Amino acid sequence: MELEMFSFIESVIEEYDMHQATYAYAENTIRSYFESICAVPGTSVVSVHTRIKTRESLREKLLRNKFYLHFDHPRDALMYLSDLVGVTIECQFIRNEAEIYNSLFHHFKIDGSGFSKS
Questions:
Q1: For residue 114, is pLDDT > 70?
Q2: What would the mean pLDDT of 68-93 be, rounded to a whole number?
Q3: Under DSSP, is residue 72 helix (H, G, I), strand (E, B) or coil?
Q4: Burial 55-90 (b: 16+ CB within 10 A, else e)
Q5: Are 23 and 85 a contacting pair, CB within 8 Å?
Q6: Neighbours of 26 (CB within 10 A)
Q7: What does the pLDDT look like over 74-86, one tens digit per residue?
Q8: Mind listing the pLDDT tens digit for each residue in 18-49?
Q9: Are 16 and 58 in contact (CB under 8 A)?
Q10: Whether 31 contacts 11, CB under 8 Å
């Protein structure tokens, strides 16, 4: 079982490596979109940062959450991840967080598969 677990994790990492260009494109697109909606004059947004989950972080998450027990195919494991590409929006003061959080809901709608642009 242990060999199977590590084999699955390595297969997921290989799949991840094959799609790095796609993840980089998604990261740039997401960053550009959030920068544009946060560039409203008078907003308290200081900066927008994005990141792609590192190989090491991915490996740790796969082990910690026992993905090898829940997925048969490496692509399914990657598709399940909700944080493969992450966004951080920095604001001036803690009191501005709720304002920014609430303003984001004007740009997205919730459908059966999650959030999408309005």
A1: no
A2: 93
A3: coil
A4: eeebbebbeeeebbeebeebeebbeebeebbeeebe
A5: yes
A6: 15
A7: 999 999 998 999 9
A8: 999 999 999 999 999 999 988 878 778 999 99
A9: yes
A10: no
